[in-house]
């Protein structure tokens, strides 16, 4: 299991951001997906005792985007969809995974999910990413 490098001041996985939620991403070398295990805390609370939907969306966006970055593309999201299926209790480990589902000429489509420890899908996401190297001064995720 290979961890991906942190990058700068990213809200989700930046080591230079004191407010980052501190996620470390890993590469699944078999299928090219990117994943992490994470425990939501009071800092990411939405409804009492549960993770905020925006925190779930941020993790899905970052997982899907990291999969695209890791494949060698400097991209930004232009469209995200999140389906919330179950609440995510604070203090319980979840797995977040993102992958490329289709690679077109101008856009890269992605999919991702947040699963609870028992394997139940809590949220799923889809994203559209386009090349945007002009937005980034440094290479992220080792490319």
Written account of the structure:
- There is one protein chain.
- By secondary structure, the chain is mainly beta.
- The two termini are 18 Å apart.
- The longest helix has 18 residues, at 53-70.
- Helices cover 13% and strands 36% of the residues.
- A hairpin with a 6-residue loop joins strand 2 and strand 3.
List segments where confidence is low: pLDDT < 50 over at least 5 consecutive residues: none
What is the fold named in CATH at topology level?
Answer: Thiol Ester Dehydrase, Chain A
Helix and strand pattern: EEEHEEEE
Give the averaged pLDDT, no decimals. 86
Number of domains: 1
| Major β-sheet annotation | 7 strands, antiparallel
User: Helix count?
Assistant: 1
Strand content: 35-45%
Rg of Cα set: 14 Å
What is the CATH architecture annotation? Answer: Roll
Q: Which oligomeric form is depicted?
A: single chain
CATH C-level class is Alpha Beta
Please report the distance between the alpha carbons of the first and last residues: 18 Å
Query: Can you identify the CATH superfamily?
Result: Hotdog Thioesterase
Strand order of the largest sheet: 1-2-3-5-6-7-4
DSSP E strands, number: 7
Structural class: mainly beta
Shape: globular
Kindly state the percentage of residues in helix.
10-25%
